[in-house]
Design goal:
Layout lengths: L1 E4 L3 E3 L4 H5 L9 E3 H4 L7 E4 L2 E5 L4 E4 L2 E4 L3 E3 L3 E3 L17 H20 L3 H7 L1 E5 L3 H17 L13 E5 L11 H14 L1 E4 L3 E5 L3 E6 L2 E6 L2 E4 L3 E3 L2 H9 L9 E2 L5 E2 L2 E6 L4 E2 L12 H19 L14 E6 L2 E6 L2 E4 L1 H14 L3 H17 L13 H4 L5
Parallel strand pairs: 1-4, 8-20, 10-11, 10-16, 11-12, 18-21
Antiparallel strand pairs: 2-3, 5-6, 6-7, 9-17, 13-14, 14-15, 19-20, 22-23, 23-24
Helix pairs in contact: 3-4, 5-6
Length: 403
């Protein structure tokens, strides 16, 4: 078996927002790929960038070579989707990789540093205004963490500004936040954000994003809001390699750039090519595409592994069926919601469940211990020890505005 990745580490994306807000360091939620498979002598790891496939020759094309295969499993994931406004990415970073997280971290804490220095009240207000676009779990968790930073972590550390006066605005184009949860849980999430000092704006779309502000549109009314920090969590699309694979295999792509697969996770007409995770459009038993969440990818990975082994001994397996373990989202300390089947939880019970599930999902015991220690210290002190503004993060540092 050969594992090909453009990065040399596995990243646990659900906790990226905690890197972006200074609770965790990148190494807490990442693990070297070679270390993870070092005991599996039949696995090799290649640091390479896959760009295309030659279906006839059964060759995966890399940016710097080729790799022959008998069976190909594509799990290239997804990237952020700006709905035709690629230029917004410069002013509103998304949260998909470690570089995104450290960039966001730098922007957040550089904004407070600049606000401390400026004499202009209007500029200070813009610096202390944070807009999060998209109210899925990532957006809600980011907004909640920002509110905690402003009101609990930083107030005693600055002398000229009142960090608790920071405005945290969560913008959602749909009628409610966390639309995949029950309406009553969405309402509880809004109440939790309000308790932290955040503001939720639903039925509000983004019309434009610039370096100095964002234009919001609610119906026919537009409003320009001055802000220096806009964070994007509004949508995803399949990895760019998906388009090349679809062209080579004749597979169809949906509007989000996902490759259509059958009930066995294979591309139609190509039983040797599997697509799993965020890159796959896999319709569930109700005919709706499965959500782009970690449990789907994990279960598909286990299924494909079993199916390949079954094929080697000429055994058949039933079609893949997703078993929904439920959904969770955390808003702040002691504030979370969870939905597992008919069970709907909120408050501290849901929060402790969220902590346990995410802690156990980390792939190494070392990471679990590190994260548990950081969480415990944060709970006792409200401190976020990874609040670093590095040279590769934060627009202010790149320009030399914050020293």
């Amino acid at each position: 078996m050969t594992l090909v990745d453009r990065r040399n580490f596995h990243l646990f994306q659900p906790l990226l927002y905690q890197v972006a807000t200074g609770t965790l360091s990148p190494a807490n939620i990442a693990a070297p790929l070679r270390n993870l498979v070092k005991r599996q002598a039949n696995v090799r790891v290649l640091l390479a960038d896959a760009i295309d496939v030659d279906v006839g020759r059964r060759v995966l094309r890399l940016l710097d070579g080729e790799l022959a295969y008998d069976t190909l499993i594509l799990a290239a994931g997804a990237r952020s989707h700006y709905f035709g406004h690629a230029g917004w990415a410069m002013h509103a970073p998304s949260l998909k990789c470690i570089e995104d997280a450290t960039d966001i971290r730098g922007r957040i804490f550089a904004a407070f540093e600049k606000a401390e220095r400026t004499e202009d009240a209007t500029q200070r207000a813009a610096l202390l205004t944070f807009v999060v676009v998209g109210a899925g779990p990532t957006g809600v968790e980011l907004a909640g963490a920002l509110a905690e930073i402003a009101r609990h972590t930083l107030p005693r550390e600055f002398r000229r500004i009142d960090t608790a006066s920071a405005r945290i605005l969560l913008v959602e184009a749909g009628p409610r936040i966390l639309p995949n949860f029950a309406p009553e849980l969405s309402a509880k999430a809004v109440a939790a954000l309000s308790k932290l000092g955040g503001t939720v704006r639903t039925d509000t779309a983004v019309a434009d994003i610039t370096e100095t502000g964002v234009v919001l549109r609610a119906g026919v009314r537009e409003e320009k809001l001055a802000t220096n920090t806009v964070l994007w969590g509004a949508g995803v699309q399949g990895s760019p390699v998906g388009k090349a694979i679809a062209a080579a295999t004749g597979a169809s792509l949906d509007r989000a750039g996902r490759i259509a697969v059958g009930s066995d996770c294979c591309i139609a007409g190509h039983s040797e090519i599997f697509v799993i995770g965020d890159l796959a459009r896999h319709e569930g038993i109700q005919g709706l595409p499965l959500p782009g969440v970690a449990p789907v990818a994990e279960q598909q990975g286990a299924y494909v592994s079993d199916l390949i082994r079954a094929r080697l001994v000429n055994r058949r397996l039933p079609p893949f069926r997703y078993r929904d373990p439920g959904s969770m989202a955390t808003i702040g300390r002691g504030l979370a919601i969870a939905q597992v089947g008919r069970w709907k939880l909120s408050g501290k019970v849901a929060w402790f469940a969220w902590l346990f599930v995410h802690l156990m999902a980390l792939v190494r015991y070392e990471n679990r211990l590190l994260v548990l220690g950081q969480w415990g210290w944060h709970y006792l002190t409200w401190n976020r020890s990874a609040r670093l503004i590095t040279r590769d993060s934060g627009r202010g540092v790149e320009r030399g505005e914050v020293r």
